[in-house]
Amino acid sequence: MSSTTEPFPGPAEPGARVLGAVDRRDLVGGKGSIFYRAHSYHTKVPVEALMMLIEHYTEMGGTVVDPFCGSGMTGVAAVLTGRHAVISDLSPAAVHIARGYTAKLSPAAYRSAALTVLGRLAGVERDLYQTDEGRTEYTVWSDVVACPECGTDIVVWDSAVDLENRTVAKTLTCPNGHGGFARSGLAWQRSIPVHRNLSVPGQRRRKTMAVDRTLEPNAGITVDGWFPETPWDQWREMWRAQHREMGIASAADFYTKRNLAALSAIWAEIGSLADEPMRNALRFTFTSIVNRASRRYQWHPKRPTNVLSSTMYVAPLNYEFNVFSLLRRKIQVMTNLYSATHDAPGTCEVHQGSATALSWLEDGSADYVFTDPPFGSNIYYADSSFLWEAWLGTQTDVAAEAVVNKRVGADRGGKGLAGYRQVITESLSEMSRVARPHTWLSLQFHNTDDAVWSSIQHAVEDAGLRVDAAVVMDKTQASFKGLRHAALGERVANFDLVMHLHSVAGAAPSTHPSVGADEVAALITRHLATASPAHSVTPFVHSVVMRMLLERNASLDGWSFRAVEQLLSDRFTLVGNRWTLSTNQPRKARD
């Protein structure tokens, strides 16, 4: 795989890429495109950045491979640029979503079929969501907890929410005046509906009103069709004691009875369609709403705050959205998606299976390999995909996942760092096998832990590959998880690295020399001298340090996010949230 094509973008000479201006070399992509909005996924690589890479490394008609495809953005980029993608993933949910994104359907035919499904279920929507005042668009549910002093019920909505000032208090007070108590740790009693938002015919503004709490919230509601009862087991990484307290033991328990009835009816109607491509497209539309339709979507007085990434947390205040309204809005989004891909020149095939055994690909059949594997223990994909896969009727093989587990024991296939490194090594070896001679492999990765970084560095080497160059992937918009954790003062890597690899099979194992603080400070100084404000924040600087060390084949040990942050604090000046060159900096760091 030693290539005559330069890594993206090609360095002028061996040392130039290490200290060159990074702004012109970074990959930039946003999260506002239809490919981000149509269906959520735990991680996504911006299609715009992938198109840049694919067009750099391949010609029209070339074959692009991605064996950790996730939501299928590599496939989308190949379709849009006239290449043929062969993508795959271990996760049934990922394969389902990737096939939905890369399918080519007539947008008009899709919209017609989707609206027909909605029309057939109009009576179900009326029964479930229509009131005398109008159609319910969403209902807010509140936890009820017990006062630790007198046992009286405390309704979180009544105690904490100030609608006029749009605030939620952090402490609770019981009706008898005891308090304030932190919300966490109080004994959960039940959840009740407390507030409703209605659309009223002939009125542009929605109507909000309190819910009559004397009525039984599930009165008269039955679920006649199939719904998933996949167990939510205690051994899972994302299981918490909260789930036991709230009686959440299966996928169905993450939904209110009303929304479960609505989803069940829609799933059955979609399943009755004879046209398989259209049925699959509508199931793709269906799964795009099942998380938002669950109890996991937390209420906020200013804006919906989405489900918390990488957790199955049920907030004390949460939405019960009208499932049919969610579906109506999503149908328009999907129509726009198929309008964007229907006439695109490329093609894509999607397979399910482990990246360690790409049996559907022959030796030397790929013109370019791009992949974005799990980042250590950052995301537990099987648990994060639980609700999607429950509706699809199949679950990820946890024992085969490339993740570092913290709770899953070895008896269920849980892995430590050594097991993770082995899976990544085997996967990279397979990617090398399927790549044609003189082609490149790009590996996207990031982590705040230097031990995880070192495991990736060694896995690359174990697979007979070497990092030739790396660029920063700037998604231009931090993830919800990144924004939330940064606001809490937690260390978060918001930028990824894309490492460009080539084969050194048969070469002697590399030595990875240590790099001291003075040398790293000098590298940071040269970066900050020309960096934009957006590229002077800690997460970006950490990415730059990782890039420079990897390109020098240096040891990553000791250069965690925390270590880089400490070096910045010791040697540079923080202005707002960005680092600048300090006037009292040691001369050695400035040279």
Brief summary:
This protein is an alpha/beta fold. Helix content is 36%, strand content 18%. It contains 21 helices and 19 strands.
The CATH H-level homologous superfamily of the largest domain: Vaccinia Virus protein VP39
So what's the CATH class of the largest domain? Answer: Alpha Beta
Low-pLDDT runs of 5+ residues are 10-24, 477-493, 584-591
Going across the biggest sheet, name each strand in turn. Answer: 1-16-17-15-14-2-3-13
Give the N-to-C terminal Cα separation.
37 Å
Taking the sheet with the most strands, its summary is: 8 strands, mixed
Number of helices: 21
- Tell how many strands the DSSP assignment holds: 19
Structure commentary:
With 591 residues, this protein is of the alpha/beta class. It has three domains: 16-91 and 346-510, Vaccinia Virus protein VP39 (Rossmann fold), CATH 3.40.50; 108-337, no CATH class; 512-591. It has helices at residues 16-19, 34-37, 47-57, 73-81, 92-102, 107-120, 122-129, 156-160, 241-245, 257-271, 276-287, 323-341, 381-384, 386-392, 417-434, 450-462, 480-487, 517-530, 538-551, 561-571, 587-590, and strands at residues 27-28, 63-66, 84-89, 135-146, 153-155, 161-162, 167-168, 171-173, 179-182, 188-199, 207-210, 317-321, 347-352, 366-371, 435-445, 465-474, 496-503, 573-575, 578-580. The strands form five sheets. Strands 1-16-17-15-14-2-3-13 form an eight-stranded mixed sheet. Helix 4 (73-81) links the parallel strand 2 and strand 3. Helix 5 (92-102) packs across helix 11 (276-287), helix 18 packs across helix 19 (538-551) and helix 19 crosses helix 20 (561-571). Residues 10-24, 477-493 and 584-591 have low confidence and may be disordered.
